[in-house]
Amino acid sequence: MQGIDLVRLNFNPQSLWALNAIIGLVMFGVALDLKASDFKAVLVTPKPVLIGLASQFLLLPAFTFLLVLAIKPAPSVALGMMLVAACPGGNISNFLTHYARGNTALSITMTAVSTAVAIVMTPFNLSFWGGLHPEASKILKVVALDPLDMLLAVFLLLGLPMAVGMFVGWRYPRFVERVHKPVKIFSLLVFGLFVVGALAANWRYFIDYVGFVVFAVFLHNALALSTGYFAAKATGLPERDRRAVSIEVGIQNSALGLILIFNFFGGLGGMAIVTAWWGVWHIVSGLTVATFWSRRAPQ
């Protein structure tokens, strides 16, 4: 094991409870905007959504496994990369897709469906691919990771707040119309402040070890963006759909990854640092790609 594998970030039980609540609030705020029609689109035009889901939950985890075998990062970093690959798309992907002149409706549908599918696929992919890695599998054995426990945690963090948010949006549409933007802004602001505080408490570790993960995250994120785009291209999707799938696969819900790391891996340094840096870098790369596409009309 390497030095980064031995780092445990400063994070007490009270902070963990607060983070759980904040993530639930963020998901609730996002779900206020979701409608049943976002899921019905899968039945109307299933091909682009299914291509996106396959890229997200089948191709990206498999390619990530091959990448960590090729570049041989520290075991905890490798496991962190596999966890990021197992997470669903992040909500900023909808804004970036719109900015990139992609299919925004497809992006919204993919985010909603992938969040629901992640309840099962995130624990499965982490356990399956992590278990195949000779060094990362040792970490899974040490923490005695139970996929069913993680499934329940992902359901409580994503599934339950999403269901409650959609119900409130359906039952009280006028009230939600007035409050959904303030709720979303407030929840994201609170989450941002929490992340800043957690980073400040672990600044020394971050500075000492972020250099170990910068190149790996760059390659991993480029792989994710490319996987989505070329999978969509290979299956004959139009350019607007390719852009949506690429951004959806390239923008991961790193916040979910971080909370799973603190819940199940005790804030394991390599996992946490690679996931945190992913949360920074995918915004930079996503904005860069979206800006490039925004200046070119889809053919």
Can you tell me the CATH architecture? Up-down Bundle
Classified by CATH, the class is Mainly Alpha
**How many domains in all?**
1
Largest sheet: none
User: Considering DSSP H and I runs of 4 or more, what fraction of the residues is helical?
Assistant: over 70%
Q: Please report which band the strand proportion falls in: under 5%, 5-15%, 15-25%, 25-35%, 35-45% or over 45%.
A: under 5%
CATH topology: Na+/H+ antiporter like fold
Low-confidence stretches: none
Span between termini:
49 Å
Shape: globular
* Number of continuous helical runs: 15
Extended strand count? 0
Radius of gyration: 18 Å
Give the helix/strand class.
mainly alpha
Tell me, rounded to a whole number, the average pLDDT: 84
Element order: H for helix, E for strand: HHHHHHHHHHHHHHH
Describe the structure.
About 80% of the residues lie in helices and about 0% in strands. It has 15 helices and no strands. Helix 6 (about 90-100) packs parallel to helix 15 (about 270-295). The chain has one domain: Na+/H+ antiporter like fold (Up-down Bundle), CATH 1.20.1530.20. It is mostly helical. It is globular. The model has no long low-confidence stretch (mean pLDDT about 85).
